[in-house]
Amino acid sequence: MCARKETEPAPDWSDYRGVFVYVEQRGGEAKKVSWQLLGEGKRLANKLDVDLIALVIGDEVEHLAREAIYYGADKVFLCEAPELKAYRTRPYSRIAMKVIGEAKPEICLFGATGTGRDLAGAIATHLPTGLTADTTELDVEPPPSRLLLASRPAFSEKMMATILCKQYRPQMATARAGVFQALPRDVSRQGEIVRVANGMSEEQMATQVLDFIQGQATLNLEEAEIIVAGGRGLGGPEPFAMLKELADALGGVVGASRAAVDAGWIKHAHQVGQTGCTVRPKLYFAIGISGAVQHTVGMSGSEVIVAINKDPEAPIFQTAHYRIVGDLFKIVPALTEQVKKKRA
Ligand code: FAD
Known about the structure:
With 344 residues, the protein is an alpha/beta fold. The chain has helices at residues 32-48, 62-70, 89-103, 114-126, 240-250, 258-262, 293-296, 316-319, 328-343; strands at residues 19-23, 25-26, 29-30, 52-58, 75-80, 107-111, 131-135, 137-140, 148-154, 159-163, 171-175, 192-195, 226-230, 253-256, 283-287, 304-309, 322-325. Belongs to the ETF alpha-subunit/FixB family.
């Protein structure tokens, strides 16, 4: 591909209108990031005064097309076929490119998940256009420029970079889960569902899915509804077992601050914050975590935050809805015992 120089006048993109969101699903269940992106996509679409378009691909996934409308989409392209049950780059990217080619959205958004990154990368390469990966802030310049302002941390997370795609359409971005807020699910919303044919034979798909092996205990912090996170206040790796017991009793997962991760007490996959995951669970416990801004930026969108800290002046108490001042080694076991009793 020969990139156009920024000094060249931008081509006329006036036939590209609308915001597109890819609704990622597995086994008929949508990833939460899809609804979050529809929420953010709607905000951008309203600013540009255009429609919000969604794409759902899979087998027996019509219910997700309806859900996409409830979460803000005006029009949903739906491609269903048994051979589309599991994600494969070639058929999924071909279908998405066909829809993008027909609908001509000016902005295309994907979750920054393994699948979303793969799909968005394949589409951007083929179209060809620019793709900003792992964005954490999105906005648009008002008409006439209508440019997508896609921001993401850069230079070892020390700066925010805002990336523009002036010379190509659509403008594409993947976005981190948990950063944007889904709209309230509104079952009275009406929208259009447009069926799209797959049009690709099994032989043309290049790869075959022979089996799907569920990884053992794969941590999914971004999708978790309850997170019990621990920090340097735990003093070592062993107390994380105590946090796991509380998380198990509540049906949640364990998170951590960077201090705990950097100390080697727990793996990076558990880290919440600027250089970890951004989460929006229903319930977040911050245990022995001081509340540095780099941590709170990743969890302040949680519905209910409970902080346990022995320092009554700890900054985490400014973010928390419930504040427990005291020694975590006394409070956490007592809490776990009460939860277990209630659940028994
Ligand atoms: P501390 O700040 O040391 O806090 C420990 C807390 O435990 C204290 O408040 C203390 O009162 C309490 N405590 C101690 N003992 C007990 C006890 N027995 N009972 C109850 N409470 C107790 N941090 C992140 O978390 N996530 C990130 O993604 C992240 N990214 C960063 C990116 C950059 C570029 C930089 C510069 C920093 C980043 N940080 C991140 C680090 C962040 O600035 C803080 O250093 C870190 O969050 C502190 O972790 P902590 O709260 O566990 O430790």
